[in-house]
Inverse folding.
């Protein structure tokens, strides 16, 4: 299970770096460094959910394929963007499919033995949905509040979602292994 979470948390770290780079120099070339790590997060989270609730080996085997599809979706967008078409259909699937599929997996495959950490996964998805709504209504939020945009609030909501992923990992794997945690509230 740990390799999946290693990829997930590496994707989160790279998303922070890629997003900082994009916001420092916003253009389509720097946007690649923002989007690719996000696809790593989306697809490794889907892989982890499959591994946790359906089958560990299946989730682990799917990790490479899912991440490759995610990265390919951004590379395809960038290629088509250079042709003046900017095809985001595959990237949209990569971004939204896991957020639809994960709740479905939770409904269909949840068992009493898999309950630990499930609420954290649910909250991670909820906060991601909130982040997407804040992004969608970016201008309306700014015109209403006049001091902060929906895009800025999106980053905060995504950080809350990430916190829930850290809590999920901690509850399902660190505590199970008996590793003492200092400074992390229970």
């Amino acid at each position: 299970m740990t390799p999946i979470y290693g990829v997930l948390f590496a994707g989160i770290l790279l998303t922070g770096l890629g997003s900082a780079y994009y916001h420092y120099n916003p253009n389509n070339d720097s946007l690649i460094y923002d989007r690719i790590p996000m696809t790593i997060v989306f697809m490794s989270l889907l892989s982890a959910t499959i591994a946790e609730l359906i089958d560990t080996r299946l989730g682990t085997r799917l990790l490479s394929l899912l991440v490759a599809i995610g990265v390919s979706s951004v590379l395809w967008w960038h290629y088509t963007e250079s042709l003046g078409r900017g095809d985001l259909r595959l990237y949209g699937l990569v971004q939204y499919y896991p957020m639809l599929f994960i709740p479905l997996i939770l409904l269909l495959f949840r068992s009493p033995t898999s309950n630990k950490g499930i609420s954290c996964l649910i909250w991670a998805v909820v906060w991601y949905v909130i982040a997407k709504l804040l992004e969608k209504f970016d201008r309306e939020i700014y015109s209403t509040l006049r001091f902060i945009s929906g895009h800025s609030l999106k980053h905060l909501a995504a950080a809350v979602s990430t916190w829930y992923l850290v809590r999920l990992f901690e509850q399902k794997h660190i505590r199970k292994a008996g590793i003492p945690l200092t400074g992390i509230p229970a």
